[in-house]
Amino acid sequence: MTDDRTPSASSATAPDGFPPSPGGHDPEVLRRRALDALLTARARTTALTDSVDEAELTAQHSPLMSPLVWDLAHIGNQEEQWLLRAVGGREALRPEIDGLYDAFEHPRAARPSLPLLAPAEARTYAADVRGRALDILEAAPLHEDGRPLERAGFAFGMIAQHEQQHDETMLITHQLRSGPVALTAPAPPEPTDATSLPAEVLVPGGPFTMGTSAEPWALDNERPAHQREVAAFHLDTAPVTCGAYRRFMADGGYTDPRWWAPEGWDMVREHGLDAPLFWHRDGGQWLRRRFGVTEPVPDDEPVLHVSWYEADAYARWAGRRLPTEAEWEKAARHDPATGRSLRYPWGDTDPTPEQANLGQRHLRPARAGAYAAGRAPSGAGQLIGDVWEWTSSDFLPYPGFVAFPYREYSEVFFGPGHKVLRGGSFAVDQVACRGTFRNWDLPVRRQIFSGFRTARDA
Questions:
Q1: For residue 14, what pLDDT is reported?
Q2: What is the pLDDT of residue 8?
Q3: Are 160 and 218 within one domain?
């Protein structure tokens, strides 16, 4: 879920490509929701960019990531293209910079060499665009029978999600950067009943409704709702912890090819991997670097910064497997008492701080077993927030998929090259995280806020 998924508005698909949203969405409620989502995203963007100096904003802290100032201006440029031009019909403010901030035109490693807007100019540009976008939001009808981009406020929700996705990307850059601490946050809440939780839960077999045709701001790859049949399986109650992962390491997990997919074993040997990213050994102790702070690795916190290959190897070593995407969603959403699929594990209401670790409130996952109020009917917890969870599934379209509003958000990534992650992390805002939300990435990725849980057949 990063910046290489948003081209210009000129690549939008035809209006009839928009999956219909349900009736009953009050335009004024959606308008207030859109306003709140846009303001929340901008406050976070400001915090991420104001916390470092100009040199840090323009530096490339890793060839895997863009300079922070690129993300800032890209956020403004995409908002201009979709909200000012496509929705508002306004004249282009800065058409000459469209190419500079087209994520498909310039790979991340090459972006520092581009004639990018300087930090002050990027801030002014993004603020100017935002003021005009809010004027358009105030006047937009947002009716169900309106233009596809305006219907149920979709374009405004899409742009809020886009900005939050870049905020997550910028937070990854903050984790990769060296230098003094720039971001701080309180620790997440402690679990109250972790010691009494079972290691795994049984998810009964049978059909369930996967995906959505009802969520007004759901993106194209989440649609449409459809029936899936899933056999009974057992799933970890919580994500795999650092302590459990250390046992895999101590048992020679990184030196035994039996556990690894061939490409994963090649990766281990090529890069000399022996632990998750940002871990290092100091004498007999494992330490990690987290946003500029070096600290002991906490055994009871979900493991973070592992690739799909590492998650898959651990699962094989443990005599288990990664869950499929359908299994993960059934465990997270299916309510056997009603037969319904819920928006979130706890129900249909938006997340609260008591239910999930979202929105960069804590800058780390909560300990395994936390957020009792957020557990699903299946009994599994921490399915939303804390860590993105790798699944065994390739990123593929649902039956009846229609690209909207552009092919490059999802369709060009479909296939065996990308693996699906579910659930969000502490770095994800609620507007870009729900029970149907699908993330995907290359199986080698480690800098992302990724963890996993394991499953086994019943």
A1: 39
A2: 66
A3: no
Please identify every stretch of the chain with a pLDDT value under 70, giving residue numbers as ranges: 1-24
Burial code (b: 16+ CB inside 10 Å, e: under 16) for 134-146 equals eebbeebebeeee
Residues 138 and 212 in one domain: no
The alpha-helical segments, DSSP class H, found in 277-358 are: 308-317, 325-333
What is the spatial distance between Cα 237 and Cα 352, in angstroms, rounded to a whole number?
Answer: 20
Tokens of 159: 């742009």
pLDDT attached to residue 3:
55
Laid out side by side, the sheet with 285-290 consists of 279-282, 285-290, 293-296
Token match 């998924």: residue? 5
Residues 167 and 205 occupy one common structural domain: no
Q: Which residue do the tokens 């706890």 mark?
A: 346
Cα separation, 257 vs 262, whole angstroms: 8
> What would the pLDDT profile of 300-320 be if each residue is shown by its tens digit?
999 999 999 999 999 999 999
Per-residue DSSP letter, 118: P
Which domain CATH number covers 284? 3.90.1580.10
Instruction: Please indicate, yes or no, whether residues 263 and 302 belong to a single structural domain of this protein.
Output: yes
Residue 2 lies in a domain: no
pLDDT in tens, 337-361: 999 999 999 999 999 999 999 999 9
> Same domain, yes or no, for 151 and 222?
no
Distance (Å, whole) CA 231 – CA 48: 44
Cα distances from 208 to residues 22, 212, 292, 338, 351, in angstroms, run 20, 12, 44, 11, 22
- The residue range of the domain holding 21 is 9-176
Instruction: Compute the distance between CA of residue 394 and CA of residue 211 in angstroms, rounded to an integer.
Output: 16
Indicate if 273 and 201 belong to the same structural domain: yes
Q: Which two tokens stand for residue 356?
A: 């999930």
Q: Phi/psi at 420 (nearest 5 deg)?
A: -85, 135
Q: What residue has token string 């939001």?
A: 137
Residues 89 and 189 in one domain: no
Q: Which residue has the tokens 């916390």?
A: 51
